[in-house]
């Protein structure tokens, strides 16, 4: 069990309203990702759920029970911190066993659970080491191990991969997703990286300045962003925003077209652009173009397309995949 | 070629460094050597080859009762340090883990009490000690040394405690540890190294404090500083014995000091240089 | 709620040290201030009376006062000069790769752990004694007349002793700072064509500036109060030739029994120390924000 409900939750630090008021429903077993730029309040929101910060007003319910005033330990949640927060003076074994010792379980039970967790996380050979003797990825797994042995009703992750290098981040992303499929426990995951959000989440919560911009599955957010902020934040490379005559011809203030939805040709199209930079990734190539009367445009094309700095390229937006926004930045539905 | 230059450079630097080090260490070395000379040898001109007698050490004990000031030094330095730690740990803890807007001001103010020149309060302290019958008492001196070093102790502990990451405490709270368990299982083990180095440095400072210990004691409570200072009035030729007494006075703290080099920098600069 | 409780607890935990230091600071200082306006002699304790600024005037007109201020400045300035320059030089030397670095460090740091009376007595008897000291032996070796250090150069002798005690401190701190200098920065400067002297002036000195400030200020605090070294060597003499302000106050108070006069001197010492403290606090305080 592990459903979390936020009712009109707000948080004020001194003068600063970090979170004005948020309502959110997290269902049992869901993998929910809070994503947004730094300072959007996503970490604060997670810490409010954890109980590490007191809410200024509103209520937090876990499995229908009001835990607004409960201590962190009483909420039955486990958290993985950005810095991993391992106990430096304890061996890996004792780090993982610590929450079980606090729960005053039998020694035999503790040993078994630690052994199980170590096996799942490939830590069996490292149980007697100190955290300082481990690599970044191993520390990360210890932190996860410490969280899973408690069999919490939900896991909270606070930017857990931001201290790892790119390759390891990819691996750990898979491991965490895999873990979620095995355990089927609710996970709440905070990140500023939209790639992590897209690849891992069942449900993404996009936050900006303490407000929820949109909630939905990765594909919903990708296909129908509710406003300019979400449209610009989700997707990589970012969506192109075009204003002026082209947008007006589509009855919008701003027209949005993703780089992958531009048809490219060497001889004809409605936009004509000059390649400023071509990023060849192999399978794909990202073209950064200067387009007359439109401005800077990023286009994604097949690696075989063969365009280089200074080449002229023609583009045609795929009108069925066009996003239109009004003067308030809200999406217009067809 | 490059390696040759590097090796030659290293040898030159090594020779220079050892010469400088030996010159600086020479007075201590010579004191130790003189302490195992006979008195006539000690004044017979420069010599690094003593006859190797331990007579002086025995004489210092039998004639001047060395053990008594030594014990006083131990009691005063260890006693005042422990007392200071007991008072300082809770404050440093509070300032490091629940800082307020005024924490910084309080720390700076504490440091400022350390700046007060001792002589400025010599008269009132002397009179107060006299009136309360604390002159030449171990209790009086222990209290004195505690107060003198309290700001440094608070500061050192504060800088150590502040390095304990807050996330670890939060992790232990998430893991179900109560306040007491948090202190016993997580905080204390992480704070012990800092407390130990503070203890070490403060014992050194208290052991060597040479204003109040000399002025406020005469015989009963006199630690080694006062004991050695009493040798300044000449009583014939006594250099070998003086050297023996000096060697014994500095040896324990010299060895402690070698172990605490790193902490010394940090402690004496109030964390400004690490 | 919880946060409020923590705050109350934190205040309670801080109370003992704050109160103790408050008492320790206020009571004796207030007494000193009070005494400084009194005519109070320990030999005649029944006859205490208010004298206004007489003690200050007395102190101020005493020729020993200016001599002692001058001597204080010479000790502070002389020791700082020797320790800072010597400290930088030795720190640069120790920063090189050398054999037996650990032992060299231990030898160099050692004088700092020697208690002041021992340091002073060792130098007075074994090193600087005009008949039997090591310096005298060296002079004789070269056929020169040995110098009677404490009679001819009493103040300079004390500066040497105190500098010997503090040189390790300066060296150790500057070495620590030097070692924190980013190796890549040095290599970048080398690639940019900077020679040793250029690297020293443009890279090392600015990097050390803060540590040098800290060394100067902290040493000054301690050097203003040099006492034991004077007591066991020259006892302030000959005349007042090696009496600093601290020693003069001690003389006035416990040898002259003049409580009022000594207290006036004490207040002057506080003012002096506060000027230095002001700068030290700013230097240390900046570090807190980092």
TrEMBL record, chain B:
The chain crosses the membrane at residues 12-33, 74-94, 106-127, 139-161, 182-207, 238-259. It comes from Neorhizobium galegae. It is found in: Cell membrane. This is Carbohydrate ABC transporter permease. Keywords: Cell membrane, Membrane, Transmembrane, Transmembrane helix, Transport. One of its GO terms (cellular component) is plasma membrane. The lineage of its organism: Bacteria, Pseudomonadati, Pseudomonadota, Alphaproteobacteria, Hyphomicrobiales. It is a multi-pass membrane protein. GO terms for biological process: transmembrane transport. InterPro entries: BP-dep_ABC_trans_perm, MetI-like, MetI-like_sf. CDD domains: TM_PBP2. Residues 70-260 form the ABC transmembrane type-1 domain. Belongs to the binding-protein-dependent transport system permease family. Its main location: membrane. Pfam families: BPD_transp_1.
From TrEMBL, chain C:
GO terms for cellular component: plasma membrane. It is a multi-pass membrane protein. Residues 69-280 form the ABC transmembrane type-1 domain. It is found in: Cell membrane. CDD domains: TM_PBP2. The chain crosses the membrane at residues 12-37, 69-94, 106-123, 155-179, 200-228, 248-281. Keywords: Cell membrane, Membrane, Transmembrane, Transmembrane helix, Transport. GO terms for biological process: transmembrane transport. SUPFAM superfamilies: MalF N-terminal region-like (SSF160964), MetI-like (SSF161098). Belongs to the binding-protein-dependent transport system permease family. PANTHER family: BLR7065 PROTEIN, INTEGRAL MEMBRANE SUGAR TRANSPORT PROTEIN. This is Sugar ABC transporter permease. It comes from Neorhizobium galegae.
